[in-house]
Amino acid sequence: MFSHPYRYLFILLIAVYSYLNTLYVEVFVYYHIPLQPWEALLTFVFIVLCIWEGNRLLETKVETLQNWLKDIGKRQIHPLLILFGGSIVITTLSVSIPVVVFGHYEFDYNWQQMHMPVKLAFTLGFRINLFLNTLNAIFFFLRQQRQAQLEAERLKKISIQAQFQSLKNQVNPHFLFNNLNVLSTLVFKDPVIASEFIEELARVYRYVLQNFEKELIELSTELNFIRSYRYLLDKRFNSSLHIQINVPEQYQHHYIVPLALQMLIENAIKHNIGSRNRPLHIRIYVDENQLLVVENNLQPKLEKELSTQIGLENIAQRYQFISQQTITIQQDSESFIIRLPLLAVFD
Question: Which segment of the chain is annotated as a signal peptide (predicted)?
Fold first, then answer.
């Protein structure tokens, strides 16, 4: 506080305010102190200036004094205590100088006559010093609180980034795990198709590696990836799986979290059955609320597959970390619907 850029204005205001108070209660008349108004005002300005500037200079040395006192006493002393203790010495010197100058040299007072002016001057000086140090303590604790909040925010951000990175790291093995299961089946059924599948898998996996570290990706890019990924699924499921994409051009420049659509398709396949007569239909479209919808007809498997519990929770938490928005899940007797926020990114 003592280093405030407008400190000289504050010094003048405090000095004038203190001077007007003494005029109002007629201190100089009551105690017969023959100071001229301009002399009294200059005295107040001098005292406040010396107390303020003395505290400011002392404040710059507090850390040095704190270390020195710690070396002597082996204990850490609070900086405010050091500052307040030093300010008492500063106040004593600040008050003594004008009292001696006016009392001893101008008015030729003896020490007995100076008794009352000294008491009044010290009362004024220590009240001003107490007021300034109280304000400084308030500023000190507010600053400490603000720094603690900033540090907490910094640690929270680091924690969130670490959690986010952990969530992203779950996508890669999840994606690879499911497609290796597909490949293991095709190897025994048809080696030729398995070879083509490997080529397409490499092409798709290249996309995963290129975009895996991104927090967001443009929807058009993700949809192109899904169209390529659909080839891998068609080779396995043939006509038992239908994936329909109907997203208007105006929405394709919005953003979603990477691999969200792929994970939702995987989720639908994992928990539902499909056949030629009863294929699994997966639709990707934008609803009237401008949310990206992934909808599938509900044909649950009688025996549930072992789940890694990554898909939906992963997507939900990544959205939460990035935008504070959440995905919505809706299920009825006929369909299972996931709605993803479409995010706008501004440069």
Answer: none
Distance of CA 346 to the CA centre of its chain: 20
pTM to 2 decimals? 0.52
Beta bridge partners of 339: 293, 328
> Rg (Cα) of the chain, in Å, rounded?
38
CA distances from 259 to 160, 178, 250, 268, 315 (A): 20, 14, 21, 14, 9
d(CA 2, CA 59): 8
Residues with Cβ within 8 Å of 332's Cβ and at least 6 positions away in sequence, in order, are 298
145-194 confidence digits (pLDDT tens): 888 888 877 767 665 665 555 555 555 566 677 677 777 877 877 788 78
CB contact burial 190-225 (16+ within 10 A = b; e otherwise): eeeebeebeebbeebeebbeebbeeebbbbebbbeb
Rounded distance between C-alpha atoms, residue 272 and residue 336, angstroms: 10
pLDDT digits (tens, 9 = 90+) for 25-68: 666 666 666 667 777 777 778 878 878 777 777 777 677 766 66
Q: Are 51 and 17 in contact (CB under 8 A)?
A: no
Second-level CATH architecture of 190-341: 2-Layer Sandwich (3.30)
For 114-136, how does the pLDDT look when each residue is reduced to its tens digit (9 = 90+)? 667 777 777 788 788 788 878 87
Supply the DSSP string of 219-265, one letter for each residue: HHHHHHHHHHHHHHHHHHHGGGEEEEEE--GGGTTSEE-TTHHHHHH
Could you list the beta-strand ranges (E) of the chain.
217-218, 241-246, 255-256, 280-286, 291-297, 328-331, 335-341
Helix, strand, coil share of the chain (percent; to 5): 65, 10, 20
Cβ–Cβ under 8 Å, residues 290 and 342: yes
- Which of 303, 301, 233 lies closest to 271 in space, CA to CA? 301
